[in-house]
Amino acid sequence: MNQPTHIAGATCRDAPVLKERGQREVFCGLTGIIWLHRKMQDAFFLVVGSRTCAHLLQSAAGVMIFAEPRFGTAVLEEGDLAGMADAHEELDREVDRLLSRRPDIKQLFLVGSCPSEVIKLDLHRAAERLTVKHAPHVRVLNYSGSGIETTFTQGEDACLASMVPVLPKTDARELLLVGALPDVVEDQAVDLLTKMGIGPIRVLPAHRSAEMPAVGPNTVYACLQPFLGDTAAALDRRGACMIQAPFPFGEEGTTLWLRAIADEFGVDDETFARVTDAPRARARTAIANAAKALQGKSIFFMPDSQLEIPLARFLTRECGMEAVEIGQPYIHKGLVGPDMDLIPAGPTISEGQDVDKQLDRVRAARPDLTVCGLGLANPLEAEGLTTKWAIELVFTPVHFYEQAGDLAGLFSRPVRRRELLKLEAAE
């Protein structure tokens, strides 16, 4: 049956999960390089893959051919794929050439792809070998960006998780913020916490390898993104302790995220209010203005970005929307459980995807807005449904108070556009 039995419960954490395993429509995990290479100023991401991988990155990043970004592709040719050439020798040669030309590189990531995983190229062993060869000037790490079994945001998770085992050790009590955000948004978060007297504050990933945080049994960390399950597990293995809270989307989510950290560090109510009251008021006003078109509208989340559950919490509680289905590629309740606690029971909660069955449910429900991947948006629009690209929510600054109105606007704009088109057609 293509619908779970709804068991009465107070929140979505109590609801049964419709687990689907079938054809999926997801973007490639290599996409995470597009924001990570801007974040880490002395890192380089070398994708070991095909020409298709190279074209994807060039197109997604909008990089001109004469630009010199901090990513590239070591192309696997036919001889490599057929086992006629020693791919490790060729990889060593490419890395030597790259590092001789780019002495600014301090951290090199060998990024696995679908082709390199199909031929079982051992990039972990290659990274260890190349680290010995190029130490201490360059550290070489590896992770998989393959989209065979993952969704696109998990590229960042895999990257950060690969860094955790080599972070230095510390016994100091420090706050670690985990996840890549635009610099201006990260600065806002650090500024709010600093004004409360919280510190030292470290960030993973740091802008430069020399600034990478240390981790130990007194480290407490808060995730900035809900797709960092592997990174959180790696930090737990290092002895760090996670602060659980809803994610900082909208006024409510941001306040609860900050409150959880403030409680951990003993910040009193008066100090918390002094720091947050003004930005909270601005956020509420901005959301109210942007969300007028969303009141009473229905929304359907197809699984794509791993942001679906926290965004559904924001849209239902702060923008007056009704969630029909909240689909997420993987549901990690250790991360998104606090958000699920705030969503009233009612919407279908689905994990994984069988795209044809899910499209049938979208067509039956005909929601006012469907959040989905690029490949499904145009066909659904052609059927008269209003859509929102999930990937845009990752590339756009949407966290914390000052971006709360912009976040609501990302959802209200397609709804207003559809209403305007209807008015024009009626005339």
Residue fraction in strands: 15-25%
**Total E-strand runs:** 14
The major sheet is characterized as: 6 strands, parallel
Quote the CATH topology of the largest domain: Rossmann fold
Helix count?
A: 17
The backbone outline, from C-alpha atoms, is: globular
User: Could you say what the CATH architecture of the largest domain is?
Assistant: 3-Layer(aba) Sandwich
State the separation between the terminal residues, measured CA to CA: 43 Å
Low-confidence stretches: 1-8
Portion of residues within helices: 40-55%
CATH class assignment of the largest domain: Alpha Beta
Instruction: Please state the average pLDDT score.
Output: 90
| Class of secondary structure makeup | alpha/beta
- Give me the side-by-side strand order of the main sheet: 1-12-11-10-13-14
Radius of gyration: 22 Å
CATH superfamily of the largest domain: Nitrogenase molybdenum iron protein domain
**Total individual domains:** 3
GO molecular function: 4 iron, 4 sulfur cluster binding; ATP binding; metal ion binding; oxidoreductase activity, acting on iron-sulfur proteins as donors; oxidoreductase activity, acting on the CH-CH group of donors, iron-sulfur protein as acceptor
Subunit structure: Protochlorophyllide reductase is composed of three subunits; BchL, BchN and BchB. Forms a heterotetramer of two BchB and two BchN subunits.
Binding site for [4Fe-4S] cluster: 28, 53, 114
EC number: 1.3.7.7
Q: What's the topology here?
A:
Blueprint: E1 17-21, H1 33-39, E2 43-49, H2 51-61, E3 71-75, H3 78-81, H4 87-101, E4 107-112, H5 114-118, H6 123-134, E5 139-144, H7 154-163, E6 174-178, H8 183-195, E7 201-204, E8 219-223, H9 229-237, E9 241-242, H10 250-264, H11 269-290, E10 298-301, H12 308-318, E11 322-328, H13 333-340, E12 348-353, H14 355-365, E13 369-372, H15 374-382, E14 387-389, H16 392-395, H17 404-426
Parallel strand pairs: 1-12, 2-3, 2-4, 4-5, 6-7, 6-8, 8-9, 10-11, 10-13, 11-12, 13-14
